[in-house]
Amino acid sequence: MPLYEHVFLARQDVSAQQVEQLVEHYKGVLESGGGSVGKIENWGLRSLAYRIKKNRKAHYTLMNITAPHAAVAEMERQMGLSEDILRFMTFKVEEHEEDQSAMMQKRDRDDRRGGRGERGDRGDRGDRGDRGDRPARDRAPRRNDGE
Questions:
Q1: Domains along the chain with CATH numbers
Q2: Among candidates 129, 87, 106, which has minimal Cα distance to 43?
Q3: Which residues on neighbouring strands pair with residue 60, listed in sequence order?
């Protein structure tokens, strides 16, 4: 049976519980078509690169699917009709990855580093030091031509 990776984006105003209900619904569609769903990863609420149907953010979800093409086509048809699904994409793969996807590994790496925008200790600034190597400026008073 063919193997697929399927990613879908749900609207930002849908709750996490509703996203799980969507996953369960589409999982049922696949199982009724003779397929099965392996790993499910919820990547969370993430910013979009551009607005999609007036949404700036979306809930991202990845599903590893083992199903015949007809079951996947039916799931995609129902996703196309749903107002809660902004976009979806299905890839046919040779084998499923057993460990975390690249998106989850990136999130773990960001968590260890302390989040985005935090630079941490920047103690050593190289050869700049305290800028003691600059010559002293001549502090002559400025002349105001307006008076």
A1: 3-113 (3.30.70.60)
A2: 106
A3: 9, 44
Average pLDDT over residues 139-143: 69
Name every residue whose Cβ is closer than 8 Å to that of residue 37 and which is 6 or more positions away in sequence: 27, 30, 31, 63, 64, 65, 66
Alpha-carbon distance 53 to 101, whole Å? Answer: 27
Read off the pLDDT of residues 68-89 as tens digits, 9 standing for 90 and up.
999 999 999 999 999 999 999 9
Per the listing, tokens 């975390």 go with 100
Q: Tell me the per-residue pLDDT of 31-61, one tens digit each, with 9 for 90 and over.
A: 999 999 998 999 889 999 999 999 999 999 9
DSSP result, 122-143: ----TT-TTSTTSPPPP-PPPP
Q: How far apart are CA 87 and CA 80, in angstroms?
A: 8
What radius of gyration do the chain's Cα atoms show?
26
